């Protein structure tokens, strides 16, 4: 069944259609959110808000965009609202708890040994659109088509961004 048909059924309260739509697009929504929201807990909350927004707003879908693009638009708005709403917690140094050193998690230790930390540090030096595109492709395993839909750019632009990111990273590594 087409996404548009599923969303129409979601608008009428069909939970099975919602589950199917979720199954098709949850990974793409999660990937976009995780790229833009570094904290895993906050990212999960944003994803939940996206799907709640989908359920509540399904009737508002006009059909002038792909369902995935519509969902990603909801995600972008939720991310923006979360960033606006969240204020950094300021604690007086005298009141701050003593830092705990439980050591790195096994995942962090493995990734660190593999040089992923260094790669991510280099990646963050690139322009934002290259970081986002490369992260979606390399770390989240999305296809060029999925990234194009997420970013609202042509697939060729995604390919050139990946190529440029690879070239710039290689140049940084060669230094």
Q: What does the model show?
A:
The chain is mainly alpha-helical and 175 residues long. It is built from nine helices and no strands. Helix 2 crosses helix 4, helix 3 packs across helix 4 and helix 8 crosses helix 9. It starts with a helix and ends with a helix. About 6% of the residues have low confidence. This is RNA polymerase subunit sigma-24. Belongs to the sigma-70 factor family. ECF subfamily. One of its GO terms (molecular function) is sigma factor activity.
Task: Name the features.
70% helix; single chain; Rna Polymerase Sigma Factor, Chain: A; sigma factor activity; RNA polymerase subunit sigma-24; Arc Repressor Mutant, subunit A; transcription; 175 residues; RNA_pol_sigma-70_dom; 0% strand; mainly alpha
Question: What's the structural blueprint in terms of helices and strands?
Answer:
Elements: H1 3-11, H2 15-36, H3 40-57, H4 67-85, H5 106-113, H6 116-123, H7 128-139, H8 144-151, H9 155-173
CATH superfamily of the largest domain: RNA polymerase sigma factor, region 2, helix turn helix motif
Helix residue percentage: over 70%
- What's the number of helices? 9
Give the overall shape: elongated
**Could you tell me the strand content as a percent range?**
under 5%
Ends: how far apart? 51 Å
The CATH architecture of the largest domain can be given as Orthogonal Bundle
Structural class designation = mainly alpha
Number of domains: 2
* SSE succession: HHHHHHHHH
**Measured on Cα atoms, how large is the radius of gyration?**
19 Å
CATH topology of the largest domain: Rna Polymerase Sigma Factor, Chain: A
Which blocks of ≥5 consecutive residues have pLDDT under 50? 105-114
The largest sheet, given as strand count, sense and whether it forms a barrel, is: none
Name of the CATH first level of the largest domain: Mainly Alpha
What is the tally of beta strands?
A: 0
Calculate the mean pLDDT score and round it: 81
